[in-house]
Amino acid sequence: MTGSRWPDARQPGWIPHLVTRLGQQAPAFFSRFLPPDEGGRPSAVLILFGPGAQGGEDVVLTERSHSMRSHAGQVSFPGGAIDPGDSGPVSAALREAQEEVGLDPAGVRVVAELPALYLPPSNFVVTPVLAWWARPAPISVVDHLEVARVLRAPLSELTDPARRFTVTHPSGFAGPAFDIDGLLVWGFTAGLLSKVIELAGLERPWDVADRRPLPPDLVGSSDRRDRPAPSPVFPEGTS
After folding, report:
1. Is it true that the peptide bond before 161 is cis, omega within 30 degrees of 0?
2. Greater confidence, 238 or 128?
3. Which pTM does this prediction carry?
């Protein structure tokens, strides 16, 4: 994990705490799958927190277009493959966020890069980029072929025990999930959010025994190559 800290009166106290905790974790804390020696398709996602409109903080999420060939309708962080013109994961994550939701990269301060995580079925090596947005500007869908909706999910809702449960996939996958603004957040995205919330010291006790099957429409939206493991990020005690 790499990153930097800086004095910022608008930055909540849990962010420097999170950065410190991130630096203490081995990559295996985030995933049971580490990038193979031969590598894979490099990509990056942006985990962007900022001050919420109603107080507290929120994080930027997108609902993928329902017409996409794979993962249609699923909730994800802005991001995508690292292009030849990108200088690295940070550059790629910011560029993708600009292309998907109209984010102005100049207003974003990168906090840290998490360890690269490997998705074996799709051969993606994903680097999550954690960032803070001190003065959020308007964002919205730029390309409706890729993104159906942009939302800023309040951290208060992500940490609400009533909105957290375990989702199960017919393949046998079980992992954390969130019910946010009528959308189901699960798989890779929910796994990362769960780990970040835990390390930030913001987690509240929730019922991990509350297990709910993945809705059929989301099962059908998954690319067959991504079965039986839609996400390499699992909480303790799940598989």
Report:
1. no
2. 128
3. 0.87
